[in-house]
Amino acid sequence: MKALSVLGSTGSIGTQTLEIVEEFPERFKVVALTAGNNLDLLVEQIVRHQPEAVALAQPEKLAELRERLEALEPALRPAQLPELLGGSDGLCAAAAWSSADLVVSGIVGCAGLLPTLAAIEAGKDIALANKETLIAAGPVVLPALEASGSRLLPADSEHSALFQCLQGTPWADTARLSTGVPTPGLRRIQLTASGGAFRDWPAADLAKATVADATSHPNWSMGRKITVDSATLMNKGLEVIEAHYLFGLDYDHIEIVIHPQSIIHSMVELADSSVLAQLGWPDMKLPILYCLSWPERLPTPWRRLDLTAVGQLTFRAPDRDKYPCMELAYAAGRAGGTMPAALNAANEQAVALFLEERIPFLAIPRLIERVCDRHRADLTTSPSLADVLAVDAWARQAVLEAAAALQAATPAALPA
Ligand code: NAD
Ligand code: MG
User: Fold this and answer.
1) CA-CA distances (angstroms) from residue 262 to 152, 241, 304, 312?
2) How far apart, in whole angstroms, are the C-alpha atoms of residue 248 and residue 184?
3) Burial class (CB in 10 A: 0-12, 13-18, 19+), 377
4) Is the Cβ–Cβ distance between 382 and 338 less than 8 Å?
5) CA proximity to 372, closest of 406, 405, 330
6) Whose CA is nearest to atom 36 of ligand 1?
């Protein structure tokens, strides 16, 4: 029985993780949950999974959570109320919860960094969905993994595909999961991308893309932030940096290919030129399950892949002019040090402004570019955690300032 701490349990990754736990009650149980602010769903999850600990990002909501749990009718009330924790320290305590074997890192954004690091420092294995943690703080996370011996198992579908393809290579035998050491025999990575919401839009139409347009993904159902990242292709850019830290390849050997059907989840090319791919329907439960069951494979009744029903698998090169975020991410990855932290925070802030309808879609890459340009002179090559957090806070503020400046210069282009 593997005991899980699920960070971000009310989100897309969190709820799918809990569905898996319910499908395999003899294999997995939940000992800790953390959530942002969806108390209705959280209470339901507590009733079903009876965790030992629950943490809320906002400590001021703890009293309401306690009241709701105490007000449950006796048949639903857990025999023992979970320990209720709040704020950043509470999230970190739930992430490092002593009875947890594996921590599902499913918080969105850099807010996941400190809890994920707490789990690593406590020696827990990590199912990493929260890519922002590794992108912002790769130079801090990799040594922490090395020091604690905790293993970083990729839950992102592309990186899970790469991880699955690398089983059976010398890399798997080294059991060096994600220490940034180049993977022996691995020559090239090809990350597949669906192309996001605007893959069939002419570039000229992107200027009028709305929030509703950008948050309807053709193939995957995910949280709002990552769905916008898919529409800008920043998600794929972030995944390039994620792959660099996970598998140790330099950026010249990590490529992006548009594959609209999302059936091939990514590919590795090995030293002898053999290319291995992992295939499946676009369903995040598979990569999440593999993190939970690794190195075992558990039998599931899930829909099996039928390539004759798919018909065609097609591929094309990404349009770099239409999607400037990809190039920004490659440039930030190559610059290294704190630059990916600046890129990631600028992206989070710009996407938040877009989702609040305060900037147009095309302002997202413009704002990120400005912030990365400004950060170049202050880049720290071997940052500490404090350096990363300082750059993260600075970049968010810099986006707000740049957005205000853009708005003053072109008020029509930037609705208030
Ligand atoms: P989501 O928005 O659906 O869920 C986010 C979760 O984090 C929620 O439980 C929310 O309450 C919590 N949260 C939000 N802000 C928080 C804060 N400041 N402090 C603490 N908790 C907070 O997001 P998601 O789509 O599940 O994505 C989660 C992570 O997984 C992201 O990093 C995303 O890039 C990655 N990911 C998601 C998918 C997917 O299919 N959804 C696929 C690959 C990778
Ligand atoms: Mg992905």
Assistant:
1) 24, 20, 15, 11
2) 10
3) exposed
4) no
5) 330
6) 129
Residue nearest to atom 31 of ligand 1 (CA): 108
2-150, which class in CATH?
alpha beta
Q: Is this model's pTM higher than 0.85 or not?
A: yes
Amino acid at position 189, single letter: I
**Angle, to 10 degrees, between the axis of helix 131-148 and the axis of helix 234-247?**
10
Strands 264-270 and 275-279: antiparallel
Residue 378: Cβ-neighbour burial (10 angstroms; 0-12, 13-18, 19+): middle
Give the mutation target among 10, 13, 163 for probing the ligand 1 site: most ligand atoms within 8 A of CB: 13
Ligand 1 atom, smallest distance to 15 CA = 26
Length of the chain equals 416
Q: Which residues contact 365 (CB under 8 A, 6 or more apart)?
A: 232, 234, 324, 325, 328
Question: Which residue ranges have their beta carbon within 6 Å of ligand 1?
Answer: 8-14, 35-36, 38, 57, 91, 106-108, 111, 129-132, 156, 220, 222-223, 226, 284
Longest dimension (CA), the chain: 64
Amino acid at 401: E
**In this predicted model, what pLDDT tens digit does every residue of 8-56 receive, in sequence order?**
999 999 999 999 999 999 999 999 999 998 999 999 999 999 999 999 9
pLDDT in tens, 97-119: 999 999 999 999 999 999 999 99
